[in-house]
Amino acid sequence: MVHGHYHIGDWRVAYRNCCCTTCKSAVLAEGHRSIIFLHIYWIPILPIGTSVRWFCRQCGLEIDARRPSRPSILIGGVMFAVFMTLIGSTMLGNLETRPAGIVALALGPVLAGALSVMIRQQCYRDYAAAVNAVVPLDGRQCPVCGDPLLAGTKPRCYSCKVDIITE
User: Fold this and answer.
1) 80 Cβ neighbours under 8 A, 6+ residues apart
2) CB of 41 within 8 A of CB of 2?
3) DSSP character string of 8-27
4) Residue 22 to residues 28, 61, 112, 125, 134: CA-CA distances in angstroms?
5) Nearest CA to 131 among 57, 68, 72?
6) Which tens digits make up the pLDDT trace of 17-62?
7) If 111 and its partner were Cys, which of 3, 43, 81, 91 is the partner (CB 3.0–4.6 Å)?
8) Which residues contact 79 (CB under 8 A, 6 or more apart)?
9) Domains of the chain: which residue ranges?
10) What's the maximum distance between 2 C-alpha atoms anywhere in the chain?
11) Looking at residues 118-133, what average pLDDT do you find?
């Protein structure tokens, strides 16, 4: 791609327990901070911020790589597809807008059907229950090196140089 954004740097900054959508289990995740740059022809032009991405320590992928979409978003998409179909049918009467009406009539039902299948296939309730069942870290010792953590407002392992998220 000629333009866009990419992540530069990869610093481990935190650990937390979470639900990995690839492993489908409660796992320890590593948070990695990176700087996001806009680029043109792969030349970094402007830093636009930082982000923390969470990776599963078992499979190595991002923890939300296969997170299901919320049903309300999919239902909104189905409603848009139905609206697009209705608008397309009204555009068929005018010769100037007939090509756009044909496109809307062709794409509307296909989009509505695809999103309806996604609604039936996805189990967002199972995902939400799995996320709620994750036990947070206790904050007394580092889950990786086992060193005791200093009590305070924010648990931190000074051996690993990472924060421990206990929420």
Assistant:
1) 111
2) yes
3) EEEEEEEEEEEEETTTTEEE
4) 13, 8, 27, 16, 15
5) 68
6) 998 888 888 899 999 999 999 988 888 889 999 999 999 998 988 8
7) 81
8) none
9) 3-67+136-164, 71-122
10) 75
11) 79
What single letter denotes the amino acid at residue 69? S
pTM of the model: 0.69
Q: Which amino acid is at 158?
A: Y
Name, in order, each residue with C-beta under 8 angstroms of 123's C-beta and a sequence gap of 6 or more.
68
- C-alpha distances (whole Å) from 36 to each of 6, 91, 109, 167 are 6, 43, 38, 26
CA separation for the pair 163, 7 (Å, rounded): 21
Residue with token string 């697009």: 84
**pLDDT class of 70 with cuts at 50, 70, 90:** confident
Contact 156, 162 (CB under 8 A): yes
